[in-house]
């Protein structure tokens, strides 16, 4: 289907809206980690399903782009499938499940395992862009705190974690300091992915639809996870290998397999897992060589 | 003689046609405790918010003798500097501890917040200091991880004081610090505040309608009515030999137990 076959403007949004979002994106790229307000539009999906990410993707796409959409690392979950279909329909672009082939990747909750390359754009769906929100409810005050770089409060949250759990128990949406200036919420990615935010050759854009904010990490930007001297940042993650492709050092999902407490760990990044299976890697529960990848 | 720590010069604050406080001037010297008394609506709290940098006076100025800068008008300081001053050199104790505390985080985090705000990044040190300060304000050290919501009103007020004093401020503003507490708890809190003020050599401005509080804590007293200063002097002098009719009324209104 070509865009001309549909009644939609290319990528659903009208040109003026895309222009407005691009201006916000440019500002966000110019001030890494700063939350730029933008006039978020109603999208044909509920808030919380990635309206911010979809708008950023729509404003970013060109007809030559190849789009990949992931949800919790997987290409085949409801949210990922429907957003991919949405853009196929309203933009007529080609889509892929392969990280290496994609030029624009919209993501929820993960950064792909495969190293991103220059020229790729990673678009995050962000529920709450304000890292200070649950500590300071006033928007006027949080803006002032960002403006004056008063970030002591962020450490109060980490202190509270250690006091209660003995270690920094924040496992996702772990606050980071971008280029030594703005503290940013990296959206609910596991903190396992935090090191990948830093110095990435790809452009990283964050869109929060309901909260009407866009922020960005330009390529090769220094991103540091906040911590204490005596409780340094730890990446975390399961201490196991993928049961299907035997990958180690990747982010794993825990899957309960029976009623007797049996469980397996499996790559959260389905594309990465498939790629490894095709390359001949096999874990204890990996399918036989022929047939479909698990 | 050194310079006054805080000079308040002709501070006026209006709310539309109404007067919050008008043409109030006084000086606070290092180590001195100043009491401001008056009935409800007399402009005490308006004055306190103006001189503590929270509200903007319409006229007049407030000059603070900063450690590094010397005397400086607080409205002319840049905002980052003023905010830094407010959380290091100054302290503000609210009447309602819920206004001054973070109710959703533990007592330790409440005390540690100011330390982290000025760059402390060592968990063990922050916690040790917080625990130490809880001890100083007579809160059991085992409660360092409890939330303030689990504390009694008197404990919350003491926690608020610890949270404010942890960075070693020089100037403390207190707005009715004993309001809403019963008399025996009030008495202990006053003892505590008096001890800390003397021990740490703090200067303080205490706003209250309770004459007993100023009798115990304040060196000097200012009486306000309808936004104006009506009388000022040494505390004992004002309370024992009031000159202005309103002060006489105020002093004679206190019930003798």
Automatic annotation (TrEMBL), chain A:
<dbReference type="InterPro" id="IPR010306">
    <property type="entry name" value="PhnJ"/>
</dbReference>
<dbReference type="GO" id="GO:0046872">
    <property type="term" value="F:metal ion binding"/>
</dbReference>
<keyword id="KW-0411">Iron-sulfur</keyword>
<dbReference type="GO" id="GO:0051539">
    <property type="term" value="F:4 iron, 4 sulfur cluster binding"/>
</dbReference>
<keyword id="KW-0004">4Fe-4S</keyword>
<comment type="similarity">
    <text>Belongs to the PhnJ family.</text>
</comment>
<dbReference type="GO" id="GO:0019700">
    <property type="term" value="P:organic phosphonate catabolic process"/>
</dbReference>
<keyword id="KW-0949">S-adenosyl-L-methionine</keyword>
<keyword id="KW-0479">Metal-binding</keyword>
<comment type="function">
    <text>Catalyzes the breakage of the C-P bond in alpha-D-ribose 1-methylphosphonate 5-phosphate (PRPn) forming alpha-D-ribose.</text>
</comment>
<keyword id="KW-0408">Iron</keyword>
<dbReference type="Pfam" id="PF06007">
    <property type="entry name" value="PhnJ"/>
</dbReference>
<protein>
    <recommendedName>
        <fullName>Alpha-D-ribose 1-methylphosphonate 5-phosphate C-P lyase</fullName>
        <ecNumber>4.7.1.1</ecNumber>
    </recommendedName>
</protein>
<dbReference type="GO" id="GO:0098848">
    <property type="term" value="F:alpha-D-ribose 1-methylphosphonate 5-phosphate C-P-lyase activity"/>
</dbReference>
<keyword id="KW-0456">Lyase</keyword>
Automatic annotation (TrEMBL), chain B:
<dbReference type="GO" id="GO:0015833">
    <property type="term" value="P:peptide transport"/>
</dbReference>
<keyword id="KW-0547">Nucleotide-binding</keyword>
<dbReference type="InterPro" id="IPR012700">
    <property type="entry name" value="PhnK"/>
</dbReference>
<dbReference type="InterPro" id="IPR013563">
    <property type="entry name" value="Oligopep_ABC_C"/>
</dbReference>
<dbReference type="GO" id="GO:0019700">
    <property type="term" value="P:organic phosphonate catabolic process"/>
</dbReference>
<dbReference type="InterPro" id="IPR003439">
    <property type="entry name" value="ABC_transporter-like_ATP-bd"/>
</dbReference>
<dbReference type="InterPro" id="IPR003593">
    <property type="entry name" value="AAA+_ATPase"/>
</dbReference>
<dbReference type="Pfam" id="PF08352">
    <property type="entry name" value="oligo_HPY"/>
</dbReference>
<dbReference type="GO" id="GO:0005886">
    <property type="term" value="C:plasma membrane"/>
</dbReference>
<dbReference type="InterPro" id="IPR027417">
    <property type="entry name" value="P-loop_NTPase"/>
</dbReference>
<dbReference type="GO" id="GO:0005524">
    <property type="term" value="F:ATP binding"/>
</dbReference>
<feature type="domain" description="ABC transporter">
    <location>
        <begin position="6"/>
        <end position="251"/>
    </location>
</feature>
<dbReference type="GO" id="GO:0016887">
    <property type="term" value="F:ATP hydrolysis activity"/>
</dbReference>
<dbReference type="InterPro" id="IPR017871">
    <property type="entry name" value="ABC_transporter-like_CS"/>
</dbReference>
<keyword id="KW-0067">ATP-binding</keyword>
<protein>
    <submittedName>
        <fullName>Putative phosphonate transport system ATP-binding protein</fullName>
    </submittedName>
</protein>
<dbReference type="Pfam" id="PF00005">
    <property type="entry name" value="ABC_tran"/>
</dbReference>
<keyword id="KW-0813">Transport</keyword>
């Amino acid at each position: 289907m070509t865009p001309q076959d549909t009644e939609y403007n290319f990528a659903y949004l009208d040109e003026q809206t895309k222009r407005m979002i691009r201006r916000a994106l440019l500002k966000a790229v110019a001030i890494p980690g700063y939350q730029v307000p933008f006039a978020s539009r109603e999208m044909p999906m509920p808030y919380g399903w990635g309206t911010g990410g979809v708008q950023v993707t729509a404003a970013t796409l060109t007809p030559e782009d190849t789009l990949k959409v992931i949800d919790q690392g997987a290409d085949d979950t409801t949210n990922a499938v429907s957003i991919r279909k949405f853009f196929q329909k309203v933009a007529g672009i080609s889509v892929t499940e392969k990280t290496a082939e994609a030029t624009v990747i919209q993501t929820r909750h993960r950064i792909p395992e495969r190293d991103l390359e220059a020229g790729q754009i990673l678009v995050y769906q962000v529920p709450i862009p304000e890292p200070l929100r649950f500590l300071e409810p006033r928007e006027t005050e949080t803006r002032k705190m960002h403006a004056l770089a008063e970030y002591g409060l962020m450490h109060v949250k980490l202190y509270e974690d250690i006091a209660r759990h003995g270690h920094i128990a924040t496992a996702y949406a772990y606050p980071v300091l971008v280029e030594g200036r703005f503290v940013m919420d990296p959206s609910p990615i596991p903190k396992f992915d935090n090191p990948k935010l830093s110095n990435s050759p790809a452009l990283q854009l964050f869109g929060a639809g309901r909260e009407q904010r866009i922020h960005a990490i330009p390529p090769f930007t220094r991103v540091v996870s906040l911590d204490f001297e005596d409780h340094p940042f730890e990446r975390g993650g399961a201490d196991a290998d993928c049961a299907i492709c035997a990958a180690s050092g990747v982010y794993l999902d825990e899957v309960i397999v029976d009623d007797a407490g049996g469980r397996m760990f499996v790559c959260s990044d389905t594309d990465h897992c498939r790629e490894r299976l095709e390359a001949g890697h096999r874990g204890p529960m990996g399918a036989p060589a022929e047939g479909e990848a698990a | 003689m050194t310079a006054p720590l805080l000079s308040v010069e002709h501070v006026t604050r209006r709310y539309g046609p109404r007067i919050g406080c008008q043409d109030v001037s006084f000086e606070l010297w290092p180590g001195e405790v100043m009491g401001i008394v008056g009935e409800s609506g007399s402009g005490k709290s308006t004055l306190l918010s103006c001189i503590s940098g929270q509200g903007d006076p319409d006229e007049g100025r407030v000059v603070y003798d900063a450690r590094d800068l010397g005397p400086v008008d607080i409205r002319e300081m840049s905002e980052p500097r003023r905010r830094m001053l407010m959380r290091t050199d100054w302290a503000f104790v609210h009447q309602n501890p819920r206004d001054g505390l973070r109710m959703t985080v533990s007592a330790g985090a409440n005390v540690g917040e100011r330390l982290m705000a000025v760059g402390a990044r060592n968990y063990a040190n922050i916690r040790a200091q917080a625990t130490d300060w809880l001890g100083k304000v007579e809160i059991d050290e085992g409660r360092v991880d409890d939330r303030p919501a689990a504390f009694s009103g008197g404990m919350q007020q003491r926690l608020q004081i610890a949270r404010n004093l942890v960075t070693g401020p020089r100037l403390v503003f207190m707005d009715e610090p004993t309001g809403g507490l019963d008399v025996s708890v009030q008495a202990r809190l006053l003892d505590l505040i008096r001890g800390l003020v003397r021990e740490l050599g703090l200067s303080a401005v205490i706003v209250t309608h309770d004459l007993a509080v100023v009798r115990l804590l304040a060196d000097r007293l200012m009486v306000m009515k309808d936004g104006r200063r009506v009388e000022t002097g040494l505390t004992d002098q004002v309370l024992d030999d009031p000159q202005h009719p309103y002060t006489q009324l105020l002093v004679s209104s206190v019930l003798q137990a």
